[in-house]
Write a structure and sequence with these properties.
seven-stranded parallel β-sheet; 27% strand; alpha/beta
């Protein structure tokens, strides 16, 4: 029988699953009565809260007891393994974990697993179901982030259940592999039913304050973890960035530069991923012919909405009358922007609308410009940099990291920016290496899975080189 504090009720309380780790101070003790074969494996997950990190694990058998010193580090949920083999072939009756009176500080123990060698595969093959709430019909940066980070093939024990509150292009664009599922749910009761039916242990949400409040309400009815992907400090009516305290189990930021005003339990950084094998440096002739784009033109790859500040592109059009601008994207602000183009009689700008695969058009441009004043980490700028196209953006959100990697900073002064863009678009700098090192979909997807592993502590490999401990009395 496997004794696992993540699942088993043999322990007085579930560890990890409800954020109820054991905190050991001097003389703290937890015991588990068991009846197992003489050879057992004990895996303990924990970390130092403060002090020396020392614990004592005592294995009691029908013929005596055996003690093993354990010392944890400050690394989150590091694993300590004990392989106990009793030469007397007596039954193991109990294990106790103790912080002795003469040790210093506190240790947080988050998971205890006791199992025999032939039960090992049962532990490592378990799957966990994670729900992902998609709150809006917008197919923007948040949705593309999910597509890129979860679609990438990776070996892991997670099933992702996408719950769409409104129709979204993400459902069609995300890969349909064996561990990705989709559902439609308009309200709390429908979402709650999916969580119960699919045995979902955790919910990922992003951007929406209303969804956050709904999930906190649902936690009063059913136990699950809440993970938040935080994209931007930009505020709007339903913006989660307005809240200074986020009561979530983990806040996953897309950049080191965003969300620094937020107080929460745990913070991780998982950057924006792109497919670096698709976004490569090309001469662009084929792309220009395919989309009928003029040479030495500027691309603006963006959703057309107020917060993207695309009116500024019209100012650049006036400053650069001999340079053509193409807007790749669509959105609620398109009719208004088209009207302004006509009123201002601008002949050097065209809205191309939605393009399914941006990698098929991006090399047609000699520069990429994104003038939005509020951003997380703009995907179009990273894609441009991956193709070694001079890319211009305003310093906000996660953009400082991109500026350090070779992107150009917009001043949002049209006279200054038009001069700088004209100068730089005639030559390409090598920004691809920076993107490959920092935003590759494989690297970022692997990091995302590592974060999940550290939260759920499921996908780990057993330590094979731990020496067997023979019978006797140890102190």
């Amino acid at each position: 029988m496997i004794h696992d504090s993540y699942y088993s009720k043999n322990f007085k309380r579930h560890l990890v699953g409800n954020e109820k780790s054991f905190i050991f101070s001097k003389n703290s003790k937890v015991s588990l009565n068991i009846n197992m074969k003489s050879k057992i494996n004990i895996d303990l997950y924990g970390k130092i809260k403060v002090g020396d990190g020392k614990l004592l694990c005592i294995v009691y058998t029908s013929s005596g007891h055996h003690a093993f010193d354990i010392r944890f580090s400050s690394n989150s949920n590091s694993k300590k393994s004990i392989v106990f083999e009793n030469q007397n072939f007596s039954k193991v009756e109990k294990i106790s974990i103790i912080k002795k009176y003469n040790t210093i500080g506190k240790v947080e123990l988050s998971r205890i697993i006791v199992y025999t060698e032939d039960e090992e595969n049962q532990i490592y093959s378990r799957e966990i179901d994670i729900g992902i709430i998609v709150p809006y019909s917008i197919y923007g940066g948040g949705e593309i982030y999910l597509k890129n980070i979860i679609s990438f093939p990776s070996v892991h024990p997670y099933n992702f259940h996408f719950i769409y509150m409104k129709p979204n292009k993400l459902e069609k664009n995300i890969s349909k592999n064996k561990n990705i599922f989709s559902y439609k749910a308009k309200n709390e009761s429908e979402i709650l039913k999916i969580i119960k039916d699919k045995n979902i242990k955790s919910i990922i949400f992003y951007n929406s304050k209303n969804v956050y409040m709904m999930l906190k309400s649902m936690q009063k009815k059913i136990n699950f973890k809440i993970l938040e992907i935080y994209h931007s400090d930009f505020t709007w009516a339903d913006s989660i960035s307005k809240l200074a305290h986020h009561d979530v189990d983990c806040l996953i930021k897309v950049s080191e530069s965003v969300g620094n005003h937020i107080c929460t339990k745990r913070v991780e950084v998982c950057r924006v991923p792109i497919d670096v094998n698709e976004f490569i440096d090309k001469d662009g002739d084929f792309e220009r012919k395919t989309f009928d784009i003029k040479p030495k033109s500027i691309g603006v790859i963006s959703r057309i909405s107020k917060e993207k500040n695309l009116d500024y592109i019209l100012e650049l059009c006036r400053e650069m009358p001999h340079t053509f601008f193409y807007i790749v994207g669509d959105g609620v602000g398109r009719p208004d922007l088209e009207s302004k183009i006509i009123v201002n009689n601008l002949k050097n700008i065209k809205i191309l609308g939605w393009v399914e695969d941006v990698s098929k058009i991006i090399n047609a441009f000699s520069a990429i410009v994104l003038p939005s004043k509020k951003e997380g980490t703009p995907i179009s700028i990273i894609e441009g940099m991956s193709c070694n196209i001079p890319s211009f953006c305003y310093r906000s959100g996660g953009i400082p990291k991109l500026l350090d990697g070779g992107a150009y900073e917009l001043s949002l002064e049209p006279t200054i920016d038009s001069y700088n863009i004209y100068q730089e678009m005639n030559s390409r700098v090598n920004t691809r290496k920076f993107v490959v090192q920092n935003f590759s979909d494989k690297i970022i997807s692997d990091n995302f899975i590592k974060i999940l592993n550290s939260i759920f502590i499921l996908n780990y490999k057993p330590i094979r080189n731990v020496k067997s401990i023979k019978g006797g009395f140890y102190v």
